[in-house]
Design goal:
Length: 295
């Protein structure tokens, strides 16, 4: 290599080295100013590390959701069937005690200064049935929820047919039992037992308590129920409510029990459950559509 050629190569190399930053600068300038940042990098830059921690669960579709077939086009999805009503609410079974009462709109009813017209009319009808009764002071237990704003103490259901011991009832229930006694019990005493009805003995009327099962207040807590323990006749004999009453007595009790379903909204007795082996529970429980529960 000649000296002049060596110089040329050296100078050329130097020129290239010096020109490189300028090329780099030129290339940098040529980059678009708003170069898009890759999404992954942007997320990593802004999201806290915690989002990537393994304990953050990834949603996995549930098998039932995943397998649910799509609705046919133009057809709205059919909602899941509701469980039968008897699974949603406490069965309207008994009339007695428990622990945490559900609210009942009747619990808030307090006596007005003037007796409502409906209550007065009920008393007029009771007098027409020849029942014997007296008005009593209002009963209210705000804590338990028991309430009977216009109670009566009833001692007789009709001429010569006593209710013993004296029963505290609301007027609607007193009227219902008086009418039922005259229309059903007395005729059945004559036709089935061949005897004159003298009275009905009860085990409980108004009692501030909850049902035996469930959490609702008993109808007894509103003076809206009566537990009949026995029927007595003029000859001194009686028919006790129980599981083995005997043939004629059983026919008499069955007739009364069947006929009670309708005039009363709940009818329970021997065979219904262990709490009703020795009495007929009759009440006027308010239900949707006025339906009955007779067992
Ligand atoms: Zn009862």
């Amino acid at each position: 290599m000649t000296l002049s050629r060596f110089r040329f190569l050296t100078l050329f190399t130097l020129a290239c080295v010096m020109a490189e930053p300028a090329v780099a600068r030129r290339q940098a300038v040529q980059l678009p100013r708003s170069a898009p940042v890759p999404e992954m990098l942007a997320e990593r830059a802004t999201q806290p590390e915690v989002a990537l921690q393994p304990e953050t669960p990834t949603p996995v579709p549930r098998p039932d959701e995943a397998q649910q077939p799509a609705s046919p086009p133009g057809q709205a999805p059919v909602p899941e069937a509701r469980p039968p009503e008897n699974e949603q609410k406490v069965p309207e079974k008994t009339g007695d005690k428990q622990s945490s009462p559900q609210s009942d709109p009747r619990s808030d009813t307090v006596a007005a200064e003037k007796m409502p017209a409906g209550e007065a009319a009920c008393r007029t009808r009771l007098h027409a049935l020849n029942a014997a009764f007296e008005d009593e002071p209002a009963k209210q237990d705000a804590t338990a929820g028991c309430s009977m704003p216009y109670p009566l103490s009833v001692t007789s259901l009709s001429n010569g047919i006593e209710l013993a011991p004296k029963a505290e009832l609301n007027c609607a229930m007193a009227e219902a039992i008086a009418r039922f006694t005259v229309d059903i019990v007395q005729p059945a005493a004559r036709s089935i037992m061949g005897r004159e009805l003298a009275g009905i003995s009860h085990a409980s009327a108004y009692v501030c308590r909850q049902r035996h099962s469930g959490t609702k207040l008993s109808e007894h807590a509103f003076g809206n129920a009566l537990d009949i323990a026995s029927f007595t006749f003029r000859d001194g004999s009686s028919v006790e409510v129980g599981p083995n009453p005997g043939e004629k007595q059983g026919k008499f009790l069955d007739h009364i029990r069947k006929a009670a379903c309708g005039p009363f909204k709940t009818v329970l007795g021997p065979g219904s459950d262990p709490d009703h082996e020795t009495h007929l529970h009759l009440d006027l429980a308010p239900r949707r559509n006025g339906s009955t529960f007779c067992q």
